Amino acid sequence: MTEVPDAASPPARRLLLVHAHPDDETIGNGATMARYAAEGALVTLVTCTLGEEGEVIPPELAHLAADRDDTLGEHRIGELAAAMAELGVTDHRFLGGPGRYRDSGMMGVAQNDNPGCLWRADLDEAAGHLADVILEVRPQVLVTYDANGGYGHPDHIQAHRIAMRGYELAAGRGHRVDRVFENCMPRSVVQAGFDALAAAGRSFPFEGIARVDDVPGVVDDEQVTVAVDGAAYAGHKTAAMRAHASQIAVDGPFFALSNDLGQPFFAVEYYHQVHGTPPPQPLPAGDLFAGLTDGPAADGAQGEPR
Ligand SMILES: [Zn+2]
């Protein structure tokens, strides 16, 4: 499933995303990934677990769940591959290989203590796997969650820590990523999305409607460094969401996760920068790479502290 870029002529722009479970990349960054892939950038996804502990939505797939056949992880490898085909992303990998780190379940459940789970992983070892990918791909831009993992899931928190530690380790080994971003959603946009959902005035197949605070990573609007308009790729994002059928129910411009609460779909995706030189003013910029010089980083170049 991994297509290693031609080392002689890698794409000039290289974007690396670090996520916890299959489906998180599509919900958070699907339009961004589709847009940059279509524009010829190298888009590399590293997913930290197979999402084995996810709740299964379709009744016909219920037997896959961890408390039954425990084959959900294998199934989600296929869902992820199908979603990446919809987004045009060919380079997707699992941290340390498929199944190296198991889904830790929601915060506070017994699975948090599973010695093989991501929450129990040795940080430097896990981040070392990511640093290997960073040194191979040499991305200018790294995207992950905020320190709370967007909404407090242990695997999302750990993915953030691994991304930040991997960034440091890779810098020490010869490649400093130019910019590190955290996914975010400006409060006004999320509120407008829920207002639109309420105003749609039609019935939904979902049990209820989520609230603004149910959306991961909501921030004050001025925290946004980059807003990537992926409206032209909304169809790709929706198709990729449908590919994650065990986890996401899509209904027109709205969707629901296993809590069955309807949420608005967003084709503009937002980023808060935490490392590196910011894009040129005015902010928010429209491009994660704005102002960065094109071209592959020189081999063996030492990253300079910024
Ligand atoms: Zn997740």
TrEMBL record:
What keywords are assigned to this protein? Hydrolase, Metal-binding, Zinc
Record's family?
Belongs to the MshB deacetylase family.
Biological process (GO), any one: mycothiol biosynthetic process
The record's section on Pfam families has: PIG-L (PF02585)
Give any GO molecular function from the UniProt entry: N-acetylglucosaminylinositol deacetylase activity
What cofactor requirement does the entry state?
A: Zn(2+)
Specify the enzyme's EC class, one word: hydrolase
Residues that coordinate or bind Zn(2+): 21, 24, 156
State what this protein does: Catalyzes the deacetylation of 1D-myo-inositol 2-acetamido-2-deoxy-alpha-D-glucopyranoside (GlcNAc-Ins) in the mycothiol biosynthesis pathway.
State what protein this is by name: 1D-myo-inositol 2-acetamido-2-deoxy-alpha-D-glucopyranoside deacetylase
Q: Domain of life of the organism in this record? A: Bacteria
Q: How is the cofactor bound?
A: Binds 1 zinc ion per subunit.
Q: Region (Disordered): which ranges?
A: 277-306
Q: What is its EC number?
A: 3.5.1.103
The species this protein was found in: Actinacidiphila guanduensis
